[in-house]
Design goal:
With about 120 residues, the protein is α/β, with parallel strands linked by helices. The chain has one domain (about 20-110): Barwin-like endoglucanases (Beta Barrel). The chain has two helices and six strands; from the N terminus they run αβββββαβ. The protein has helices at about 1-15, 90-95; strands spanning about 20-30, 45-50, 55-60, 70-75, 85-90, 100-110. Strands 1-5-2-4-3-6 form a six-stranded mixed β-barrel. Strand 3 (about 55-60) and strand 4 form a beta hairpin. It is globular and about 35 Å long. The N and C termini lie far apart (about 35 Å).
C-alpha cells in the first residue's frame, strides 16, 4: 500500500509546473549564422539563450502586456548584463516590444530537455 501511495506522489511531482526564469529580454536581427549553424532569419520565432540546449522550445511572456510567444532556442546570448534571452525581430513583434527594445519577461521551457532554475516570484 505504501508503494502505491509513494508512486502516486512521485507522479504528482513530475507533473508540476516547469521552472521559469524572469528577467529582461531584448531583440536582435544581425549576423548571418546562429551559434547552432543555422542561417539567421530575423522573422523566425527563435531566440538566443546562454545555457538551454539548441532546439529547446520556450514560452516567453512579456510581463508589461501579457502577450506570449513560443520560440525555439537556436543561438547563444544574450551578452548584455541583466538580460535572460535575446529574441528575433519576429518574436519581439509578437510580444509588442519592438519600440521599447527591452522588456521584462518570464521564460518557461515547454519542449525539449532544457532546464531552468526558477527565479520568478
Amino acid at each position: 500500500m505504501a508503494v502505491v501511495a509513494l508512486s502516486a506522489m512521485v507522479g504528482l511531482t513530475s507533473g508540476a509546473e516547469a521552472a521559469s526564469q524572469c528577467g529582461k529580454a531584448s531583440w536582435y536581427s544581425m549576423g548571418t549564422k546562429t551559434a547552432s549553424g543555422e542561417r539567421m532569419n530575423a522573422s523566425a520565432l527563435a531566440a538566443a539563450h546562454r545555457s538551454l540546449p539548441f532546439g529547446t522550445k520556450v514560452r516567453v511572456e512579456n510581463l508589461n502586456n501579457g502577450r506570449s510567444v513560443v520560440v525555439r532556442i537556436n543561438d547563444r546570448g544574450p551578452f548584455a548584463g541583466g538580460r535572460v534571452i535575446d529574441l528575433t525581430r519576429g518574436a519581439a513583434e509578437r510580444l509588442g516590444m519592438i519600440r521599447s527594445g527591452v522588456a521584462p519577461v518570464k521564460v518557461t521551457v515547454v519542449g525539449g530537455s532544457g532546464k531552468l532554475k526558477s527565479n520568478c516570484s
